[in-house]
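Design request, tokens follow.
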């Protein structure tokens, strides 16, 4: 029997759960992921959740709900740092089997630890990088054209490629005659 302590962010009506499950309205996710006893992260698979799991060296069990989450889950599987379960075919048997595999195989913990090291290996710390850009902005002063995006200076017709679209319409008209 797989019996682990579970912390679950839940805002619904009162439900009865086992003594090993703690339902709370909000969870300090980063703190829990970085806790020494955290061994698995069951997540919807958003980008921030994947990043936080890698930064905390925690294997993932992804249950994608929408948008890019399915792709993120596929990436986690390809990198061998987690499993993905389909929300439409989810069963307690599949959930337990995936959890047992992720918790029982040391390869997932090794892979996520390796990616953690790669992900956090930076040539410059985040604080030093922020300080560099702050000093750069101060040094450059108030020069409006220096750091502006050129596309923001285009008129709306050019930004929407209307001259190009008009050219295509004219060419199609000429070729159809």
């Amino acid at each position: 029997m797989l019996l682990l302590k579970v912390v679950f962010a839940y805002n619904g009506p009162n439900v009865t759960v086992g003594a090993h499950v703690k339902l709370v309205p909000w969870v300090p996710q980063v703190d829990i992921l970085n806790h020494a006893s955290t061994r698995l992260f069951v997540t919807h698979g958003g980008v921030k959740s994947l990043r936080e799991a890698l930064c905390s060296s925690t294997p993932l069990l992804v249950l994608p709900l929408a948008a890019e989450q399915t792709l993120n889950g596929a990436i986690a599987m390809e990198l061998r740092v987690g499993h993905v379960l389909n929300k439409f075919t989810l069963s307690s048997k599949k959930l337990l089997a995936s959890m047992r595999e992720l918790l029982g195989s040391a390869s997932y913990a090794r892979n996520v630890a390796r990616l953690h090291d790669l992900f956090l290996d930076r040539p410059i710390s985040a604080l030093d990088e922020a300080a560099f850009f702050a000093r750069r902005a101060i040094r450059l002063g108030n020069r409006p054209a220096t750091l502006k995006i050129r596309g923001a200076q285009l008129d709306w017709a050019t930004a929407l490629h209307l001259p190009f679209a008009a050219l295509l319409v004219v060419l199609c008209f000429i070729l159809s005659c």
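Comment from the thread starter after seeing the answer: thanks! The first helix runs from residue 29 to 33.
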